[in-house]
Design brief:
Alpha-Beta Plaits; 13 strands
Amino acid sequence: MMSVLVTKGLRKTYGKLVALEGLDLDIKAGNVYGLLGPNGSGKTTTLGIILGILSQDGGTYEWFDGKYGKKARMKIGSILETPNFYPYLNAVENLKIVARIKNVGYDQFDELLELVDLAHRKRSKFKTFSLGMKQRLAIAATLVGHPEVLIFDEPTNGLDPQGIAEVRNILKRIADSGRTVLMASHILDEVEKICSHVAIIKRGKLLATGPVGAILSNDMLLEVGSTDMEALKAFLQSNPMIKTINPLNGFLECIVDESLSVSEINEKAFTSGIVLNHLVSRKRRLEEEFLEITQDA
């Protein structure tokens, strides 16, 4: 699979502040890549560098294995800041300006406005749009000219719950179309729902990268409670499929192998004379993995 973007040792400083420190990424064609990290972690700086807006202090990056040379930027659609269109022009007129800048035709507009659920407002002036509608028009603009890669920086930032849901659904449809997408976000749930791969960054350092399913382990979280917590703990410690046991809110929270049967735990505990008064299992979420990875970084 072709590498769409490779960065090697990217470094950026602002005076004494190190914004990026030796960032290595390898994004393959067709991946939906989430750049995940808290605010100030270096996500926007990374996007600024790879789009040629900022200059790096060290390291290199290359688009499309060098296939397009200096014209690589023409193969990329991006949104880095708040959507900025002409307020007195309608959606179609604004997209025409984008198409002229990209030197492409107008044939996509109906399809794109349908994709972002703005077909019914295509003749409405931009100034009448809600913030969510403005963001959706910006997403349509990134798709003008059939770019091979799409880049979004915090695409749902500042939106209300309905706007967030609408934008996420559109991004999911784009992702499902097989396009390569690079999305920076500090919202864990967003990355988990949309992305196939994730890179976790904190203070300019890459802490973990890989498929979301690999960063998200297949382990389960198990909450167990009993009137005899000491006996329960000893019982759980004897099971090799239970990896960790920690007290939490009056229960024991365990990370267990996904193949472990919850009903079997209940049955064996009862056979051992331990009556469980609390037993809840669930899949570990990206938030827990994220906090575990970043807490000591």
